[in-house]
Amino acid sequence: MGVARATAPEQREPVSRRLLTGAIVASMGFFVVRHLDVDLGDAAVLFDKWSLAPLRLVNFLAVALLASWLAPRLFRWLRPKVLEALGQASLPVFAVHVVLCLLSLSLLDENEDPLDYWDEAAVLVATFCSMYFVALRQRIAGRNMGPPSPS
């Protein structure tokens, strides 16, 4: 069920506009009630989080519906090539990450003050650039190898 949706989100059954509109209205209403401290009087029992009140469950279902409808569209748009490259070469990138973590620990001395913000930023940028370089090298090496030859 979940695997089919994750591997082929374009084959999902469409969500009706009425249900989607109702979920948006409900979640926005619950958001307003929660964050603007609306006095509910006796109806506050229906929103009580400690007893898992019924309107809390409706809010959860509305937000879950919105998240399941929005997630494929959002992830398709937010699919950065850098993270794809790091994920495809995860083992070499992890190995380099461990080495870089140990090297960055050598920059710290337990008796000294921590690194300045600029030094921390430089270490972070250098680490991510090094890991991305390893991922790109791994991708290039994978292209040059070609398909395996039959034995």
Structural account:
The protein is mainly α and 151 residues long. It folds into two domains: 2-77, no CATH class; 81-141, no CATH class. The chain is 68% helix and 0% strand. The chain has six helices and no strands. Helix 5 (90-106) packs antiparallel against helix 6. The longest helix is centred in the last third of the chain and has 29 residues, at 117-145.
Short overview:
The chain has helices spanning 2-7, 17-35, 54-77, 81-88, 90-106, 117-145. 68% of the residues lie in helices and 0% in strands.
Shape: flat
Number of strand segments: 0
Secondary-structure element series: HHHHHH
**Which class do the helix and strand fractions yield?**
mainly alpha
Oligomer: single chain
Helix share bin = 55-70%
**End-to-end distance, in Å?**
39 Å
How many helices? 6
Strand content: under 5%
What count of structural domains?
A: 2
The profile of the biggest β sheet is: none
Mean pLDDT: 80
Q: Rg to the nearest angstrom?
A: 25 Å
